[in-house]
Design goal:
Number of domains: 1
Distance between the termini: 16 Å
Number of strands: 2
Radius of gyration: 13 Å
Strand order of the largest sheet: 1-2
Largest sheet: 2 strands, parallel
Length: 74
């Protein structure tokens, strides 16, 4: 049986504390991993803290998720 893979979009706004997005991203990905799930999310190198904050970030995230769906359904 294939493991379930979650696409994780960590959103942030410029006026929210970055530390909350950074910690929340880590917590979410850790919980998924500890419960036996795979996950796909922007990396810390892709955007600021791996979050979606701008339209350009959203386009990067959409491209990543589209590539993942194609790979997993091929």
């Amino acid at each position: 049986m294939k493991k379930t893979t979650f696409g994780v979009i960590v959103g942030n706004r410029g006026f929210f504390p970055d530390a909350l997005a950074k910690e929340g991203r880590k917590d979410i990905l850790d919980v998924l991993r500890k419960n036996g799930f795979n996950s796909v999310a922007l990396s810390m190198q892709d955007t600021k803290y791996g979050t979606v904050e701008t339209f350009a970030d959203a386009k990067k995230c959409a491209a990543l998720l589209q590539q993942t769906v194609k790979r997993l359904t091929a």
